[in-house]
Write a structure and sequence with these properties.
Number of domains: 3
Helix content: 55-70%
Number of strands: 0
Order of helices and strands: HHHHHHHHHHHHHHHHHHHHHHHHHHHH
Distance between the termini: 25 Å
Strand content: under 5%
Radius of gyration: 29 Å
Largest sheet: none
Structural class: mainly alpha
Low-confidence stretches: 4-8, 331-338, 541-551
Shape: globular
Number of helices: 28
InterPro entries: TPR-like_helical_dom_sf (IPR011990)
């Protein structure tokens, strides 16, 4: 489906005027184009629907041929066809198209029209079709829908109310209605409908709907009981095990959650939801990065799974080097690279442009940072070193303006980190041990100004390539040991940040790990604390409930 606007972007009133002019002249095709444009901009405006009705009457066949469905159909034309199908006595088909429009452009109130909210629609389409429509709406909507985005779904909730009134004992309809009510913040209504669904016909899905509704209503104990009953209905549905574990973990009951994951993995050791959830819970229990590395390995080795998981990103979010850079301590702030000599030529304009496009103080997890940095893969080595020696100006974006206003040094830190990640993609055909990318990064890691950025790139390489882990772990261990020895003689502002880097390193030896844990307690200076607070403000994320599998 095409986007919700076309190239002309005319106001709805102008589109209507052009549509009426074309209609008066008998040019129905052009009139249809302008009606579709008006619908895309004002989907509930009565004058638009009046003009659509005049167009349908003028066509002699209900107007459907004026709005054919093709591979890429303008969303306004899809909605026009939906209304004409309803007028032609085919409302179920029209609803399917409105739901498709909602999925394509969820911010528009495509369904907020009288025929959708009319009580008799539920009788005309029957309970099974109504349930299917509600399932389609739920599949297209986030869970939960942010409050600011709920208005366009109000008509579908009205349809659910009308359908449940007409068919009060239809279990599937009640369950899907509950799922929609939950998504739009109507938790009490969701519990009532789901409870009726279970009473009408006890089933696994009925208990799942009830469990989700009870959890949204804050009734955790009852929610867990419902989900356990769902397991009793179908002990082989391991997705429910993962959701029980996620709910328990949300309330700090990590060991209980892990026990459910162990039960699931005993049934199927490669079930993706169980693997993702188990690794996340193990990390939450002991904080050891090996669990996250194992999860990243699983993701790499199993690229096709049942759905997208967010466990790895959730665990890395906000953690030093796992999900974001640390502010540069002391005098290293704002410096350019040692190893990038003052005579290093400035980078090309193209290199600076690419760097500005992708540089950011946060990333979902190290493998995602590696993938993002592929945008620098075709830059040559002089350009990459030039970026380190001559950091580009901050980008003209909201983030760039904040960084420029608060502390430009943080932007320099971003440049260093992402340029070093770009070096990981330099001549990837070369074997790691003798590669230019390893040589340059190790040299930079041995300096001062860019050491942490270079080490992070090396650590990232170890995340994505198990064959380099022992080499990288040795480089990191040597660097951390050197800093720790120096710290006995004088303050080392980089010690804590390097320690966090070490703790993010796969296969680090136990002694270095213990040293790193000690060094993370080195007090931070005032400037470091101020920048850490800035990072927290910049990167403060929306933190959803730690998800299990997405169930209806």
């Amino acid at each position: 489906m095409a986007e919700g606007t076309d190239d002309r972007a005319l106001p709805a009133t102008e589109e209507l005027a052009l549509a009426r002019r074309a209609l008066d002249s008998g040019d129905l095709a052009h009139a249809a184009d302008h009606v579709a444009g008006a619908l895309a901009r004002a989907p509930t405006l009565p004058e638009v629907h009046e003009t659509l009705a005049h167009l349908a009457a003028a066509s002699g066949d209900g107007g459907l041929d004026l709005f054919p469905l093709q591979h890429h159909t303008f969303v306004g034309a899809v909605v026009a066809r939906a209304h004409l199908l309803a007028a032609a006595g085919r409302p179920a088909e029209g609803l399917d198209l409105l739901v498709a429009a909602t999925a394509n452009a969820p911010g528009a109130n495509w369904a907020g029209v009288p025929w959708v909210t009319s009580p008799d629609l539920a009788e005309r389409i029957g309970p099974d079709r109504a349930a299917r429509v509600l399932m389609q709406v739920c599949a297209a909507a986030p869970d939960p829908v942010p409050p600011a985005d709920r208005a366009p779904l109000a008509a579908y909730l009205t349809l659910a109310r009308n359908a449940v009134t007409v068919h009060p004992e239809h279990s599937l309809l009640l369950g899907t209605a509950s799922a929609l009510a939950r998504r739009v913040g109507e938790a009490t209504l969701a519990v009532r409908w789901a409870s009726r669904s279970v009473r009408a016909a006890p089933s696994k899905m009925g208990e799942v709907w009830l469990g989700y509704a009870l959890r949204s209503a804050g009734r955790t104990r009852e929610a867990l009981a419902a989900l356990r009953r769902a397991v009793d209905h179908d002990p082989d549905d391991l997705a429910v095990y993962a959701d029980i574990a996620g709910t328990l973990a949300d309330h700090g009951r990590i060991e209980e959650a892990l026990s459910w994951m162990e039960r699931a993995l005993a049934r199927n050791p490669s079930f993706d939801c169980a693997v993702h959830t188990a690794h996340r819970l193990r990390f939450l229990r002991d904080g050891e990065v090996r669990h996250l590395v194992a999860l990243a390995d699983f993701v790499r080795d199993h690229p096709v799974d049942s759905h997208e998981h967010g466990d790895l990103a959730e665990c890395c979010r906000g953690r030093p080097w796992l999900g974001q850079l640390t502010p540069a301590p002391g005098d290293a702030l704002g410096s350019s690279a040692a190893g990038a000599a003052p005579t290093t030529p400035a980078p090309s304009a193209e290199a600076a442009r690419r760097l500005r496009q992708l540089a950011h103080p946060a990333w979902p997890h190290p493998p995602a940072a590696y993938d993002t940095a592929v945008g620098l893969a075709t830059l040559d080595l002089p350009d990459l070193l030039g970026l380190l020696a001559h950091p580009p100006e901050t980008p003209q974006t909201a983030l760039g303006r904040v960084l420029a206003g608060e502390d430009p040094a943080l932007w320099v830190r971003c440049v260093q980190v992402w340029t070093c990640l770009g070096l990981l993609h330099h001549r990837t055909d070369e074997p790691w041990a003798d590669s230019a990318r390893r040589r340059v990064l190790v040299e930079l890691a041995g300096g001062v100004e860019v050491a942490e950025a270079a080490l992070f790139a090396l650590v990232t390489a170890a995340w994505v390539d198990p064959s380099v882990r022992s080499d990288v772990a040795q480089v990191v261990a040597e660097r951390l040991t050197t800093v720790a020895e120096a710290a006995r003689e004088r303050p080392m502002p980089t010690a804590a940040s390097l320690a966090h880097l070490a703790l993010a390193t796969p296969d680090l030896d136990p002694d270095t790990t213990a040293l790193a844990r000690t060094l993370t307690g080195v007090p931070a200076g005032p400037r470091y604390r101020r920048l850490r607070a800035l990072l927290h403000r910049l990167l403060r994320p929306f933190r959803p409930r730690l998800p299990g599998p997405p169930l209806p």
